[in-house]
Amino acid sequence: MISIQEHAISRFEKVKNKLEDAKMLYYEALLDLAFYEAEMSRFGILNVDATQRINENLVAFEQNLLFWLNEERSEYKTPERLPRFIFRVICMVDSLVFIRGCLKLHEIFEEKPAKDEILSQVSALLVENDMATVRQITDVIESKECSSLWSKYTNFKEERPKLFEY
């Protein structure tokens, strides 16, 4: 999976400054790659090179977050598509929260704190930019569509024991 993402990144990188969609997909691919590499923490503590690559990809994505957000919103303009847009933003923020957990940049290893952090970050992005209300965001977070996101926090520490060896 990692090599597929690396290949996609190299392809998008060649055209990212020529096509808006390619630029958006390039930054999504960087985030996906960071997620897949962070997921390798199941097998032990991430080495320095992997941690550095993940951090570089996170920084690149975060520096272009408003671009990504505006492009994504343009794909879901109609009111009936708003929940799908919110879901996409929740997934993106979930990836950021999960990656930071794997890097031990914060202490969010359970479902409730993860939901609270995601609600906070998504609200900051969408409410402050007049793209959604807190109620709309909460409705999507509590929906069936998001239920699969929370499973990775259920056994986070048990699935990554080497991360927590001191």
Shape field: globular
Q: Determine Rg (CA atoms, Å).
A: 16 Å
Major β-sheet annotation: none
Helix content: over 70%
Quaternary:
single chain
Kindly state the mean pLDDT as a whole number? 88
Structural class: mainly alpha
Number of strands: 0
In DSSP terms, counting alpha (H) and pi (I) runs of 4 or more, how many helices? 10
Give the topology string: H per helix, E per strand.
Answer: HHHHHHHHHH
Low-confidence stretches: none
Which range does the strand content fall in?
Answer: under 5%
Straight-line N-to-C gap: 30 Å
Characterize the structure shown.
By secondary structure, the chain is mainly alpha-helical. It contains ten helices and no strands. The chain has helices spanning 2-15, 20-39, 48-63, 65-75, 82-102, 111-126, 134-141, 144-147, 151-154, 156-159. α4 (65-75) runs antiparallel to α5 (82-102) and α5 (82-102) packs across α6. The protein is globular, with a radius of gyration of 16 Å. The protein starts with a helix and ends in a 7-residue tail after the last helix.
Strand and helix layout:
Elements: H1 2-15, H2 20-39, H3 48-63, H4 65-75, H5 82-102, H6 111-126, H7 134-141, H8 144-147, H9 151-154, H10 156-159
Helix pairs in contact: 1-2, 2-3, 2-4, 2-5, 4-5, 5-6, 5-7, 6-7
Task: Give a brief rundown of this model.
By secondary structure, this protein is an all-alpha fold.
